[in-house]
Amino acid sequence: MKKWLIALSMVCSFGIAGMSNADDTAAPAAAPAATVAAPDAAAPAAAPAPEAAAPAAAAPAAATPAPAAAPPVADKGDTTWMLVATALVIMMTIPGLALFYGGLVREKNMLSVLTQIFTIFCIISILWVVYGYSMAFSPGNEFVGGLSKAFLKGVDVNAMAETFSKGVYIPELVFMVFQLTFAAITVALIVGGLAERVKFSAMLIFGVLWFTFSYLPMAHMVWFWGGPSAFSDPSGFLFGKGALDFAGGTVVHINAGMAALMGAIVLGKRIGYGKEAMAPHSLVMTMIGASLLWVGWFGFNAGSNLEATGTAVLAMVNTIVATAAAGLSWMFVEWMIKGKPSMLGVTSGAVAGLVAVTPAAGFAGPMGAIVLGAVTGAVCLWSVTGLKHMLGYDDSLDVFGVHGIGGMIGAIGTGIVASPALGGSGVFDYAANKVADYDMSAQLVSQLWAVGTAVVWSGVVSFILFKLIDMFMGLRVPEEEEREGLDTTTHGERAYNM
């Protein structure tokens, strides 16, 4: 039965792509525009009037077409940078996130976490090129894209995507695969909330459905627009609201954090939670994973600029200092409360800082990023201790407490630290071709729209999906399998044979 449900889930997802109709128009690739409109003067030249013959002397001039616009050419330096950034983000997921999560679970569940993350990366990679890229980054409506680019229709080696600078292009294929890595890590993040008791088959089915009904609409709402050469074209709902999200505070972190929270609530607590010791089995693995995440995050944040320019450098600097500030903040607060600084504390704080700076990376100044990181480290420590205890849920690896809460702080904080008065870069007005006057209160309203939409959208979609999967096939492994460990009962392997 489980195998049939997995197959049905995959067939339904591929079926969405198969519904593409010929009326869908080719569209720009979301943040960058994929096409350039021809000059208006070229249209009349292609269609001469059929009546009133012109004088013979005028005929050659009338038949001369306007010069065709030169086809866009990819910038080699920017393209190279985007290839590197894409590889860095892949490293964030495999092996970075896998090792970070794997070290945090008990030894008997190490391989189950690694297998879930690796398999999810494989599945999302296929679904992204089949229909995911099109639904996120092609025209449709304000909430989700269409299927004009399903199966990468029209996205070949000659297709170009405009960056955030008018007239600067990268191959659309490199933009597509860069965004693939974002989708994959977002779904993989959810694994941590359900670790040590979720069925492998149920996790895969949820990942496919959640990717389709939560991730893709959020990506479209936040990141889809016509690009600098077509900035007045229709855009995603939240982009149109003016929400700022440089690299995924809402699309990735709040989205995944809410899914993990809903999963933890529907799934219930682990056997023995709060009564038995459930310490991480290898903080060495966790530290290695956190380090790989930090390095990979430079591709995540700086790569989101789509160009190797000063803004990419700013995003990289902010990713360093915000992360460092958050790690220190968490560690020192924990030190004051518990009397000892911990490796788990400083690495968890660092990840919280990475989360918070994600939406602000290209907008904040370094000093603003430090403050944002320091605040996030302390608040996220409270969220995984006080708030978690208060609400009584068992989010195994604190995905909601770090990614959900950290994403909210970062998304709202972006509206503050982006202000030029506080060292931020402000917001560029493409119509006026200059940095716009900054209205912090209006920007905060836009940021709250984005946060609220992500919380409600992901929360509702995730809860419904978890309930349906639990109803039809069950989410949780039997008690005896949970006690023995999922490595042997689900996969027939052990992480360590000593």
UniProtKB/TrEMBL annotation:
Residues 81-496 form the Ammonium transporter AmtB-like domain. It is a multi-pass membrane protein. GO terms for molecular function: ammonium channel activity. Gene3D superfamilies: Ammonium transporter AmtB like domains. InterPro entries: Ammonium/urea_transptr, Ammonium_transpt, Ammonium_transpt_CS, NH4_transpt_AmtB-like_dom. Keywords: Ammonia transport, Cell membrane, Membrane, Signal, Transmembrane, Transmembrane helix, Transport. The chain crosses the membrane at residues 81-101, 113-133, 173-195, 202-226, 246-267, 279-300, 312-332, 344-363, 369-387, 399-428, 448-466. Residues 1-22 form the signal peptide. It is found in: Cell membrane. The keyword ATP-binding does not apply. It comes from the Bacteria. One of its GO terms (cellular component) is plasma membrane. SUPFAM superfamilies: Ammonium transporter. NCBIfam families: amt. Belongs to the ammonia transporter channel (TC 1.A.11.2) family. This is Ammonium transporter. It comes from Sulfuriferula nivalis.
